[in-house]
Amino acid sequence: MNKTITKNHVAKMWKELFLSLLVLLASLCFWSCSDDDETDATDYDISELYGYTYYGNITASSGSTLIPSLLIYNDERCDWNMSVNGMNNNQFYYYGVKNSTANYTLYWYSAENVSYCKSKDSSKASMVVQLGINSSDEIVILLTGDDLTGISCMTNTRVSMKKQAAKGKNTTPPEINFESDIEDVEIKIPDTATASNWTGANSYAGTFVYMVGNPGNIIQKGKGNAGKAADGTPVTPEIKITATENNTVKITMHTFSYTEQMTIDGYDIPDVSVKTDGNVLYLYRAKSSDLVIDEKTLTNLTVSGKLENGVLTLRVSYAPGKMPFPITEIFTSN
What we know:
- By secondary structure, this protein is mainly beta.
- 9% of the residues lie in helices and 43% in strands.
- It contains two helices and 23 strands.
- Strand 20 and strand 21 form a beta hairpin.
- The chain starts with 6 loop residues before the first helix and ends with a strand.
- The relative contact order is 0.12.
């Protein structure tokens, strides 16, 4: 059967060729930085790394030292932490492509995009990493694509990483907390809304869900919890709202027990604007400044909310500490 070659066919062919050449050039550049005396490199297989944790060291532009860690569990899952001194481990799905002797390109995907990983759509990868294996005790990584963190000091920087033998071997990845039925909310304030005093209640009990990551690259979704009381019973999340000057309020957040290693205690958000339209009250705080709480910073803190028919919906987004992407909480009152 004859096929007509259209401009679209030609453009697609050139695009695929360009992407292939790009990966090849990155691989060649990566290995051109390797030691020149290793002319007879051993062809280590990536499976020799399975279950072991590797640490690196890199200095950010701010002068702070990042200690990235990598654990590849098997041929489908890996665990990455941009810096063990202040950040949390992040779970990824991945697939690898062998380029040459002991050299691979790894395509990492957030839980939201696992279907792209299974179909091996490299254009949808959250991160693209070049991996060189010097030995089972030492690897070198080069991050050549990052649609997740935006930390520039890691991109295109060759990082040597050493095996942490004391951590032992673990080839069983943890379950990723990703409840696909949880959806983000967008609370729009009508143009007709006007500044108002807060006329709602002073406190609201309810529940909340959370998401970790940027839209289109969510790595976790789950039901949030506010910790436990002294007797071990779960604490009911509660939002407190205190009227302040100039049509604003102070919002007091509940505790958020994110992981065993990370709990965000309750904190105050000042200068939240109040508007009204009809019988609905709206809350809003722009991404204007960071919020420092007990020497810990919540970066790019934003608030949007509404009180309608007695139900408070509150969306709060922030990046805690050194975390390179946001946590979004969505609270709904009872």
